[in-house]
Design a protein that fits this description.
The complex is a heterodimer of chains A (351) and B (69). Chain A has 351 residues and is α+β, with helices and mostly antiparallel strands. Chain A is built from twelve helices and 13 strands. In chain A, strands 4-3-5-13 form a four-stranded mixed β-sheet. Chain A has a four-stranded mixed β-sheet with strand order 6-12-7-11. In chain A, strand 9 and strand 10 form a beta hairpin. Chain B is an alpha+beta fold. Helix content of chain B is 43%, strand content 12%. Chain B contains two helices and two strands. Chain B is flat. The chains are: A alpha+beta (351), B alpha+beta (69). Chains A and B meet through loops of A and helix 1 of B.
Chain lengths: 351, 69
């Protein structure tokens, strides 16, 4: 399979107009993926251009190394980011991630890519101040390359194929590194069975970010109570379609992680607290018709008149990231069908 | 096996796109109004009766067997 070609004037504006009209962009300007640029990009990789990693639903076009390189060039990636992109596509294509649902649903769900291991420093990935927002080339262009791949290879076209009612800003780019050095616990990839010195990317499906501010709690369990009670509104997926499956994330800022770690010595302790204490919403908060639906869904979601948001403690995915001051942590609510997928990043020396 | 897909109008473009991706560009479809899930049972029954002839016709019509993908 070969890529489509467009003949355009040697002008960056003309190239953007042509690519936009062809439906190949996220709405933002792109670096024109000329043959020369794509070849130069691929020259620094040891992967073969026509190697196919997977087909990406719903369009089910082939995610070949060449096509990923085209999208990476368009996004403005450096060649050294490519192994991350390749591993991230493998994660998205894993059936566990249920990419068809993620790409077609009315829900705003977006994949967030969490990077672990030594590659974070090698590519100067932001794990700290503003790591969810603009400013860092690795975070922004890796996230964007994957967005473009989801548009161009998977066919996630707003309205026509993707029925996301609003989508979300995280669909432009959502990629960050775990601030492993600031965590009192093992990093995510070690938890998932990888060695600390391996590099991995984890794709987690999330409906967006919910900020949790607590500057005043001095005791770990007080802060944990604030976090557990900040997690959801009754409109969250976990009360309707998303209870039985999937995960929800918690990104603790380093100061919060340090305080919690003083008493919660294992990540599992944090998860068990969240599992119990996020079950706080009384069933009366729901209108009548939803009360009976939740009570009779066969999932034992109601306990002592309060509604669980998670079926098990393992639903919670806990990582540490963000700036070193400020007391803001972030809940990443789940979608409820995909499970996260972690893939190793194959690292060979860049020529 | 003869099938017919019933799809709401708001989701028709996705259904057609997915059918094409899977090699069934002429998959028989019958379109009903959106939204569907909030309708009262009596209204659903009414739509079913309105669409009955069309559904029977769609599932009876011969279609091409798609090439393997």
């Amino acid at each position: 399979m070969t890529s489509q070609y467009l003949d355009v004037d040697d002008d960056i504006n003309a190239a953007f107009d042509a690519a936009y009209d062809a439906g190949w962009t996220d709405g933002l300007p792109i670096i024109p993926p000329t043959e020369e640029r794509v070849a130069a990009f691929l020259d620094k990789s040891d992967r073969k251009a026509h190697e196919v990693l997977a087909v990406l639903p719903p369009k089910r076009a082939e995610a070949s190394i060449q096509k990923l390189a085209v999208n990476a060039v368009m996004a403005g990636c450096k060649p050294e980011y490519f192994p991350v992109i390749v591993a991230a596509v493998e994660a998205l294509a894993d059936p566990t991630f249920e990419l068809y649902g993620v790409n077609t649903t009315t829900n705003p769900v977006a994949p967030v890519f969490i990077i672990n291991g030594p590659i974070r420093k090698e590519i100067d990935l932001n794990c700290s101040w503003g790591c969810f927002g603009p400013g860092n080339r690795a975070n922004a262009t890796i996230g964007r390359a994957l967005t473009l791949a989801l548009i161009n290879i998977a066919g996630r076209i707003p309205g026509q194929v993707s029925k996301a009612t609003h989508a979300q800003p995280g669909r432009y780019a959502f990629c960050f590194g775990e601030h492993e050095e600031m965590s009192p616990w093992e990093p995510l990839h070690v938890e998932r069975g990888f060695r600390a010195d391996e590099s991995t990317v984890t794709a987690l499906a999330t409906t967006g970010t919910t900020n949790i501010l607590d500057m005043l709690s001095k005791r770990p369990e007080e802060l944990m109570m604030m976090i557990a009670h900040s997690y959801v509104s009754v409109g969250n997926n976990c009360y309707f379609a998303g209870y039985a499956k999937g995960e929800m994330g918690l990104v603790l800022c380093p100061p919060h992680a340090r305080l919690i770690g003083e008493k919660f010595k294992k990540k599992q302790d944090v998860k068990e607290f969240l599992f119990e204490h996020t079950a706080w919403v009384p069933i009366e908060m729901f209108p009548d018709h939803l009360r009976s639906a939740i009570q009779s869904n066969g999932l034992n979601q109601v306990v002592n008149g309060r509604v669980r948001i998670a079926p098990t403690p393992e639903t919670f995915v806990v990582v540490v990231a963000g700036g070193l001051a400020g007391y803001q942590s972030v809940a990443l609510p789940g979608f409820g069908s995909p499970y996260m997928v972690t893939k190793p990043i194959a690292r060979k020396p860049v020529r | 096996m003869p099938t017919v897909t019933v799809v709401t109008d708001a989701l028709l473009s996705l259904a057609k796109s997915a059918a094409k991706s899977y090699g069934y560009p002429d998959l028989p479809m019958v379109v009903v109004p959106h939204p569907f899930e909030t309708l009262a049972p009596e209204r659903i029954r009414q739509i079913a009766e309105e669409k009955f002839a069309e559904i029977v016709s769609a599932v009876s019509r011969p279609t091409e067997v798609p090439s393997q993908r």
